[in-house]
Every structure is written in structure tokens, then in C-alpha cells.
């Protein structure tokens, strides 16, 4: 394995203390890393020859054994970092070598080959859980990041994911999205919309319509989703709030009201309507008024997805005889076909970073998740086991959720953007994943 | 010798007539289907049992993979259905489009809609009033045969013509 270079010349950076309140219950965050950083662990994620960073994550320690256990907390960190595709977990030596001050003996730990160490501890006081996490640079022998979180014991997974988001920011310059969720459609006869943490935990059923539901897409504010449903025996577009309490029709025109996708600012929705008989891409506002018809011609047009600046929409059209992916400027201009190499390309999803579109291509009779640049260059196939469909980018543009039947049933998988680590995450069969935005 | 040639010629002619007759496309008139009766064609209410009879007499229309153009068999089925529908002008008609499981759900939704639209278009050309008819696509969501083989897929690529009062 190629070791990852540590950058000693990075500019000095002081971590400021802050306290914040987050979703669900108040989780108090305190930075406990007081020293300024003179160098840092750095992974250049865009480097195509990037090796994985070896990291040690021992059990979180506690002097209060109880229902929560340190091995489980450590396993949340391990799983997050494995799913990112950027880390290799090195088994922690038992017992962990400590120096006289009770701090980890980083000189000794360097012999393991690991470059980084995550040390966690926790205690529960009444109905309050406090978790302290530290990231050490083994090579530079110093503390890089320290955080203390307090919150409800029920939110222990969320608390650890919050630290992992910060860890990822420290190491890759972009916060992780381990605190985000994935919505999907279950595989029962009545296809209900579910949501889960990105790693498959905290499964929640959002709809109970007893009808077919399809194509969920998160509102950019993270407060709800739009989806296609046959509640009124027609494929109409509906909105459901994340708590499942509000269910509102968004577009119920005659014929298709399908594959709705919010614009990045949340003010507009691109969708496929067949009000003029042939399914075409339209843009409506959130009050359901048609703003414009975006595509013309004789092809079936479906599955719109916005560029992150909202200036373009990519979509599927079979105007050339087979389904292919096109882009069209929202404010006028001709569509441009971007997929040329295979005969069946569908389900585009434009990365929030803007650099790539993920889509489904039919290759040798099966479906595979692929990526391509918006200009049609750099076509790459990421999957090869079973049939793989419905890609949806994570909000940091570094991971993709998709549907795979490689284990016999359709299940939601996640992978890194290069496809090196592909892992099933949904505990129930499902399809059509939609990765949430970051929650404010 | 001359007589023998004549006999062979006559036999060949008969064969040709029989073959062309057998191959000619003709619309099978739906004579055995339920009729409104008592000269009340299309007027007034239709009994529930009668509606079910009309529904049962309507033929599914089948399609080729990733295609919404009408095959000769599909055209014949639509022509037959048009004759049935003409006898019951008060019934509302929904063309319900379906696809096989191959392909992606959203694209199949568009394809099913287009198949249904093609059927409605031809029914309209055959004289069925446009304001009686609508379409609904179920994409690949409701296979009639859940198996994963060519036989099942062929059955699942279909448009059902549904009638209601």
C-alpha cells in the first residue's frame, strides 16, 4: 500500500470553540483541542492514485459500564470511515500503549503502520450522554482534533457521526456527511417511502398510503420529500414532511406527474408531465404553476436532475431511438446528448459538486452504475456485480447510494465515488434511494 | 398429358386461394360479446354484470421491448376493442400502460404512458370519442407475471383497456 503523505507545510490554523444546537435534541459541542495546528493529516481525495489512510480506532473507554458500550461507539466510527472508501482500519494493540501522563504513546503506535488514531471516551450522567473524541496524528505525534458532545443517550449514533463529519473535514478539507439520511422505496406490494441514516440505522416509515410510491427526492431544506404516488390512481407528485405528518399534492395533472426533482434553491421542481400526450420535462414552482416547458420533440423525456448552480437540467430522452442522457440550459438553448457509448442510459443524478453525473447504463444485458462528466467525457463504470441502478449522490459528492440485486433481492447500497468499497446498508429490501442534503 | 397439367394447375390455384384467404388480415367482428340489448345501445345505465362482461371481452395489447409502436397483432387487438367500445358509448375508457421489469422505473413510467397514448390515439382514429378516454401508466410496477424470463416479459409489456361507468 502506498502511504499517504503528511503535509507539514500546511498553514497554521486555530480551531475556535463553539457551541451549537442540532436536530432532535440539543447536543452540546465543545472543542477541546486548544493547540493551534501546524501541520495536518491530509488526504487529497481527488488524487486518482490515493492510497487508504491506515487508522487505529480502539474501543471507547468509560468508567461507567452500562447499556452503552465502547466497542459499539468505536464501531460507528470504523464503519463510517470504511464506507467512505478512504481509510484502512488497523487493529488496535491490546492494551493500547499509554505514556506516563495517560496519553496514547504515539511513538510506540507508529510501529503499527497507522498514521492516525481516534480515541473516544464517554459517560452518562442521568439522562445526559457525554462523548469525548480525539484525533491524533501519529506521525507528527500530536492531537489534531478534539471534541466533546453532550446529548440524549438515545442520540449516541448521531453524536459519533457528528464527530466523524469533523474528522473528515480535518483530513480532507470537506466535512463528511455521516449525519445525513437516505430515503428509499420499500419492496412490498404497497411501496412505501422509508428513511434511514446513511449507514442503514434508524429505519423510519414516512408514508402509509397503501399504494405504489416512487422516486423520492429531498427538499433542499431537508424538511420533506417529493415523490410520485398513485394515491388518486394516477401518477401524481406529492410532498411528505420528514415526520410523515403532512402529505400534500404538488402536481396532479392528467397523465404523468413523474420523477420530480427540486432545484438547488428549492424554489422550482423539474418533472415529467404528459399534459401534451408525450412525456416532456417541465419546470413548475412549489405552488404547482408551470413556469416553462423545458424540452420538445417526439421523444419520451423523464428523470430530470439539476446542475448545482441551477443553470442546467440533465434528463433522459429516447428521441434518438433508445434512452440517452441529455443536458439542456434552463434559460434557453439546445439540448446536448452526453452519453454515446451504450444503448440504454437512464436515471441521471448530478453531483452536488458539479463535476460528475452518475447514471445507469445497460451493459451486457445488465444494469450498472456509471459516472460521466457533464461534457460527456471520462465515462466510467463503477459496478459489475448483479444489476445496479438508481444512483443518488451524497451531498458532499463523494459517495453514491444505489439499488443492487447482487445478493438476490433489491437492496440499498452505498459506495465511494470510485466504487472501491460497495456495501449494503438497508436492513429491508428497497429501491430508488435518495440521499438527503446536510441537515442544518 | 394436357388434362393432367390442367388438374395440377387447378389444384395449385385452389391452394393459392386458400392460402391468401387464410392470411388476409381481417377484423374479427366481436359478435359473441355482450350487446346492450332492447335497442338501448349506449343509452342509460349499464348493469354491473354487463360492465364486467364488456371488460372481459376487451383484449390486451402487447408490445416489443423498449418500444411503443403497434405490431400488426396489437393493431388487430385495438381494432377489435374499438368495435366493442362503439357499442357502449357511455362507458369511460382508460388505457393502462405497462412495461416489463427490465429498465429503470422512471423511464418505464414514460414508456408505459407512451404505449397507453399510442393505443388511445388509434382508438380515436377508429372513432372513439377523445373525451371518453384517458391514460395511466404503471411503468414496470405491476407485472401480471412476476417471473424473470422472456415469456413473462412478453406478457408484461401491455396496455389494458379498462372501462367504467
Which percent range fits the helix content of chain B? 40-55%
Query: What is the domain tally of chain A?
Result: 2
CATH architecture of chain B: 2-Layer Sandwich
- Rg of chain B to the nearest angstrom? 21 Å
- Tell me, what is the CATH class of chain B? Alpha Beta
User: What does the largest sheet of chain B look like?
Assistant: 4 strands, mixed
Classified by CATH, the class of the largest domain in chain A is: Mainly Beta
Describe this structure in words.
The complex is a heterodimer of chains A (440) and B (165). The model of chain A is unreliable at 1-24 and 34-39 (pLDDT under 50). Chain A is globular. Chain A folds into two domains: 28-172, TolB, N-terminal domain (Rossmann fold), CATH 3.40.50; 181-435, 6 Propeller (Neuraminidase), CATH 2.120.10. Chain A has helices at residues 70-83, 106-109, 156-172, and strands at 28-31, 53-56, 87-90, 116-125, 128-137, 142-151, 181-186, 193-197, 204-205, 213-218, 224-229, 236-241, 247-251, 257-262, 268-273, 280-285, 290-293, 301-306, 312-317, 324-329, 336-337, 345-350, 357-363, 366-372, 380-381, 388-393, 399-404, 411-416, 422-424, 430-435. A six-stranded mixed beta sheet of chain A has the order 1-6-5-4-2-3. A four-stranded antiparallel beta sheet of chain A has the order 9-8-7-30, with no helix packed on it. With 440 residues, chain A is mainly β. The relative contact order of chain A is 0.10. Helices cover 45% and strands 12% of the residues of chain B. Chain B is built from five helices and four strands. The model of chain B is unreliable at 6-28 and 36-43 (pLDDT under 50). In chain B, strands 1-4-2-3 form a four-stranded mixed beta sheet. Chain B is an alpha+beta fold. Chain B has one domain (28-164): OmpA-like domain (60s Ribosomal Protein L30, Chain: A). Chain A binds chain B through residues 191, 212, 214-215, 228, 230, 233-235, 254-256, 258-259, 272, 274, 277-279, 300-303, 316, 318, 322-323, 344, 346-347, 360, 362, 367, 389-390, 431-432, and chain B through 66, 103-107, 109-111, 113-114, 117, 121, 134-139, 141-142.
Amino acid at each position: 500500500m502506498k502511504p499517504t503523505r503528511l503535509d507539514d507545510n500546511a498553514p497554521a490554523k486555530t480551531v475556535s470553540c463553539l457551541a451549537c444546537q442540532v436536530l432532535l435534541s440539543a447536543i452540546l459541542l465543545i472543542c477541546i483541542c486548544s493547540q493551534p495546528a501546524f501541520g495536518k493529516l491530509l488526504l487529497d481525495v481527488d488524487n486518482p492514485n490515493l492510497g487508504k489512510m491506515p487508522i487505529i480506532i480502539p474501543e471507547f473507554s468509560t468508567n461507567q459500564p452500562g447499556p452503552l458500550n465502547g466497542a459499539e461507539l468505536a464501531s460507528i466510527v470504523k464503519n463510517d470511515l470504511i464506507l467512505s472508501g478512504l481509510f484502512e482500519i488497523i487493529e488496535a494493540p491490546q492494551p493500547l500503549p499509554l505514556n506516563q501522563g495517560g496519553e496514547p504513546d504515539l511513538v510506540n503506535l507508529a510501529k503499527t503502520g497507522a498514521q492516525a488514531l481516534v480515541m473516544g471516551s464517554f459517560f452518562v450522567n442521568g439522562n445526559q450522554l457525554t462523548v469525548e473524541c480525539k484525533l491524533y496524528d501519529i506521525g507528527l505525534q500530536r492531537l489534531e482534533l478534539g471534541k466533546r458532545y453532550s446529548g440524549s443517550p438515545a442520540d449516541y449514533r448521531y453524536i459519533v457521526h457528528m464527530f466523524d463529519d469533523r474528522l473528515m473535514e480535518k483530513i480532507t478539507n470537506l466535512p463528511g456527511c455521516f449525519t445525513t439520511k437516505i430515503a428509499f422505496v420499500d419492496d412490498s406490494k404497497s411501496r412505501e417511502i422509508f428513511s434511514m441514516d446513511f449507514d442503514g440505522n434508524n429505519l423510519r416509515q414516512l408514508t402509509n398510503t397503501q399504494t405504489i410510491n416512487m422516486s423520492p427526492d429531498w427538499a433542499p431544506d431537508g424538511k420533506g420529500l417529493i415523490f410520485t404516488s398513485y394515491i388518486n390512481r394516477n401518477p401524481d407528485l406529492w410532498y411528505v414532511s420528514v415526520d410523515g405528518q403532512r402529505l400534500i399534492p404538488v402536481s396532479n395533472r392528467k397523465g404523468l406527474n413523474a420523477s420530480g426533482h427540486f432545484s438547488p434553491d428549492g424554489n422550482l421542481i423539474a418533472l415529467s408531465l404528459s399534459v401534451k400526450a408525450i412525456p416532456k420535462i417541465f419546470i413548475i414552482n412549489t405552488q404547482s404553476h408551470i413556469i416553462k416547458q423545458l424540452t420538445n420533440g417526439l421523444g419520451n423525456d423523464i428523470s430530470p436532475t439539476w446542475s448545482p448552480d441551477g443553470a442546467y437540467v440533465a434528463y433522459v430522452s429516447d428521441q434518438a431511438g433508445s434512452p440517452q442522457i441529455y443536458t439542456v440550459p434552463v434559460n434557453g438553448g439546445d439540448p446536448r446528448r452526453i452519453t454515446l457509448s451504450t444503448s440504454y442510459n437512464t436515471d441521471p443524478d448530478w453531483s452536488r459538486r458539479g463535476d460528475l453525473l452518475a447514471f445507469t447504463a445497460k451493459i451486457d444485458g445488465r444494469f450498472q452504475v456509471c459516472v460521466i462528466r457533464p461534457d460527456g467525457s471520462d465515462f466510467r463504470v463503477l459496478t459489475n456485480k448483479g444489476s445496479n441502478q438508481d444512483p443518488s449522490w451524497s451531498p458532499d459528492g463523494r459517495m453514491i447510494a444505489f439499488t443492487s440485486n447482487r445478493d438476490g433481492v433489491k437492496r440499498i447500497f452505498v459506495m465511494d465515488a470510485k466504487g472501491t468499497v460497495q456495501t449494503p446498508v438497508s436492513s429491508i429490501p428497497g429501491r430508488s434511494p435518495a440521499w438527503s442534503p446536510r441537515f442544518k | 398429358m394436357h388434362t393432367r397439367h390442367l388438374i395440377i394447375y387447378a389444384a395449385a390455384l385452389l391452394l393459392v386461394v386458400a392460402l391468401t384467404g387464410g392470411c388476409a388480415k381481417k377484423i374479427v367482428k366481436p359478435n359473441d360479446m355482450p350487446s346492450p340489448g332492447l335497442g338501448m345501445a349506449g343509452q342509460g345505465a349499464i348493469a354491473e354484470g354487463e360492465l364486467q362482461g364488456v371488460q372481459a371481452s376487451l383484449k390486451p395489447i402487447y408490445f416489443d421491448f423498449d418500444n411503443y409502436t403497434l405490431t400488426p397483432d396489437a393493431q388487430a387487438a385495438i381494432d377489435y376493442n374499438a368495435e366493442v367500445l362503439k357499442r357502449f358509448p357511455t362507458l369511460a375508457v382508460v388505457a393502462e400502460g405497462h412495461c416489463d421489469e427490465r429498465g429503470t422505473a422512471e423511464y418505464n413510467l414514460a414508456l408505459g404512458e407512451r404505449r397507453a397514448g399510442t393505443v388511445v390515439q388509434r382508438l380515436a382514429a377508429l372513432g372513439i370519442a377523445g373525451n371518453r378516454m384517458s391514460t395511466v401508466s404503471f411503468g414496470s410496477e405491476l407485472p401480471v407475471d412476476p417471473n424473470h424470463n422472456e415469456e413473462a416479459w412478453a406478457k408484461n409489456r401491455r396496455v389494458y383497456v379498462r372501462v367504467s361507468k
